[in-house]
Specification:
The protein is α/β, with parallel strands linked by helices. The protein has two domains: 193 residues, Rossmann fold; 144 residues, NAD(P)-binding Rossmann-like Domain (Rossmann fold, 3-Layer(aba) Sandwich). The protein is built from 16 helices and 13 strands. The longest helix is centred in the middle third of the chain and has 32 residues.
């Protein structure tokens, strides 16, 4: 196996392509985004990920990685395209279908096809395999098929691609063995071989576990708000138990994993997944919960400085971001809004972005929705001098405020907002 074709050059496909190229393979990246293709061929990247720009530049200069919009013959084809939800929360597999169909003319005997995209259970068996079999291939003997889901954290992708345990699920054992052999060229973590359907379900359950855990923390936050309890302290105390690991609450759950993957399970067995369904409802309700509390501390027509639009800190990914939902809800009110996110470009959000100074000028509240490093130590002198009302509402519990002249709210003292409202009444 000397040449690899990676279809989809997004947050997973591009790092994967670069990693294989750095290992010594000839890698062709394929994407419908001509801008991404052109940038890659110049040694540049269209996404933000620590260390990725330097790695891509290196392997492009070494002629190990190039990009195009059309696949070519290769030994291995890796599918790393998005799998979004339709409006009704069923999986949209059209990108997967299109990617598989695009490589059909280039398939040869003994090729290995790997789907890295996150997919509902039985997709490899009931959706991908039939498309390839319709071309006359005997999968598992003439052509080999596997599902190898990514398990990486944005901001640490290049590290975790190497060090994390890798689940390799084959349409049959020989397919899994071939895929495992490929990944072993750079993965130092354990490589576990299983069936395609088990690999599909394990990936979904990893993210569903985290979604349910966050929903529990968010529900605790709502209850604590009504009872006058510090939810963050409760979580810290509960986690002192050796078998308890409550996650942190927040403004909602975003990204292409936690906010999407649970629906792939729900879709297959809705009557048997009430816990997963309710967890999704709780987490989806958090943007509205945040806005309700903003209404308590900012007068009508006041100015809100929104800090952070991505779904997590130190990345540029706004997919499924709860911050974007909060922004949408606030835009429907009479507030003056200013946006500050040093990791996001204006074309990503369709709304003018401000500098730190511009955002806080005459603002009545800084609303922190993402835990970027840039937000952890804010200039308190400027906050006090430039804001009309120096108030910080930190939904990510990441900002450190030392000045008593700046009112600070997080999910541990929401009940103080209620006291403020009662005082005004």
């Amino acid at each position: 196996m000397n040449k690899i074709c990676v279809v989809g050059l997004g947050y997973i496909g591009l790092p994967t392509a670069a990693m294989f190229a750095n290992t010594g393979y000839e890698v062709l990246g394929v994407d419908v985004n001509e801008n991404a293709v052109n940038l890659l061929n110049q040694g540049d990247i269209h996404i933000e990920e620590i260390g990725l720009g330097e790695l891509v530049k290196k392997v492009v200069q070494e002629d190990r990685l190039r990009a195009t919009t059309i696949p070519e013959n290769a030994d291995v084809f890796i599918i790393a395209v998005p799998t979004p939800n339709y409006p009704g929360h069923t999986a949209n597999l059209e990108y997967v279908r299109s990617a598989i169909e695009s490589i059909l003319p280039y398939l040869e005997k003994d090729n290995l096809v790997i789907v890295e995209s996150t997919i509902p259970p039985r997709t490899i068996d009931d959706f991908v395999a039939p498309i390839i079999q319709a071309e006359g291939w005997n999968i598992g003997e003439e052509l080999f098929l596997a599902h190898c889901p990514e398990r990486v954290l944005p901001g640490r992708i290049l590290i975790e691609l190497v060090e994390n345990t890798r689940i390799v699920g084959g349409i049959n054992n020989f397919s899994a063995q071939k895929a495992a052999q490929l990944y072993s060229t750079f993965v130092t973590g354990e490589i576990i071989i299983t069936s395609a359907i088990s690999a599909e379900m394990s990936k979904l359950m990893e993210n569903t576990y985290r979604d349910v855990n966050i929903a529990l923390a968010n529900e605790l936050t709502k209850i604590s708000d009504k009872l006058g309890i510090d939810a963050l302290e409760v979580i810290k105390l509960a986690n002192r138990h050796p078998r308890v690991n409550l996650h942190q609450p927040g403004p909602g759950v975003g990204g292409h994993c936690l906010a999407v993957d649970p629906y792939f399970i729900i879709e297959k067995a809705p009557e048997d997944s009430p816990l997963i369904i309710n967890a999704r409802k709780i987490n989806n309700s958090m943007p509205e919960f945040v806005v309700e509390h903003v209404d308590k501390i900012v007068d009508s027509k006041g100015k809100i400085a929104i800090f952070g639009l991505t779904y997590k800190g130190n990345i540029d990914d706004v997919r499924e971001s709860p911050a974007m939902d909060v922004l949408s809800l606030l835009k429907g009110k009479n507030y003056i809004l200013s946006l500050f996110d040093p990791h996001v470009k204006q074309e990503q959000v369709g709304f003018p972005l401000s500098t730190f100074d511009e955002a806080i000028d005459q603002a009545d509240c800084i609303l922190v929705l993402t835990d970027h490093n840039e937000f952890k130590g804010l200039d308190e002198v400027k906050i006090h001098s430039k804001m009309r009302n120096p108030v910080v509402f930190d939904t990510k519990n990441c900002v450190k405020i030392n000045s008593e002249a700046i009112k600070y709210y997080n999910f541990g003292n929401l009940y103080e907002m209620n006291e403020k409202v009662e005082t005004l009444v």
